[in-house]
Write a structure and sequence with these properties.
Layout: H1 4-13, E1 18-21, H2 28-33, H3 35-39, H4 41-54, E2 59-65, H5 89-108, E3 111-117, E4 120-121, H6 130-139, E5 144-147, E6 153-154, E7 157-158, H7 159-170, E8 178-180, E9 186-187, H8 188-199, E10 205-208, H9 223-229, H10 237-251
Parallel strand pairs: 1-2, 2-3, 3-8, 4-7, 5-10
Antiparallel strand pairs: 6-9
Helix pairs in contact: 1-4, 4-5, 6-8, 6-10
Length: 252
Amino acid sequence: VNDFDDISSVFHANAFNCVFHYAALVGVKRTLANPVMVLNDITGIRNILNLSKNTGVKRIYFSSSSEVYGEPVEFPQNEHTTPLNSRLPYAIVKNVCEAYIRSYHKEFGLDYTIFRFFNTYGPKQSTDFVMSRFLSAALKNKDITVYGDGTQTRSFCYISDMVEGLHRLMNSDTIGPVNVGNPQELTIREIAKHIIRFTNSRSQIIFKERPADDPHRRKPDISLAEEVLQWRPHVSLEEGLEKTVAYFRNIT
């Protein structure tokens, strides 16, 4: 979407009612190693917004991230009361994109919905992410690397639950931002142990120094999603891991 001419031809050749914007440079290592490339994503959202307002698009759906909360000072993280304090380029870009979207709504009347993803996992996920990286290592009986002492927490939402939540957002007039994730909070060390058990792996957990910018806790407040979408995740960790392990076992 950073190539304006290419995407412009697509927009003008087709009549779109809405646009879902999922595009972003993702993966912790990749985004930290390529901060300028991350900042280029701002060009992408600006192009999408300009084309949308000029071609009759009614609503933009934007995938933001729990990373905007940074090291949170409130648990669970709430869309309207938890400060957005991350200094990482990836989170800053998501915050800037949210501001762009609100500004285009105010100036041009372009409607929008913002949703903030918390950790998602499932089959076909890139191994740039915690769950898939651990699974890939476990199935090969390789060491699983955990940063710090592993007590930092994350909340993992299975892909089918996430898709259902987004489908309900698509059929609502909710502006957001709306947290979309699983409120079950687990330590990274617990996740590693679960995966070793599920895969009957001989992997060992090894610990390395935790990066200073790694948030200690992450847990979504999904009360807004429950209220306006009548949605909450229902796939248990055990069920989600079973399906995900089956996929990775077949490709390993």
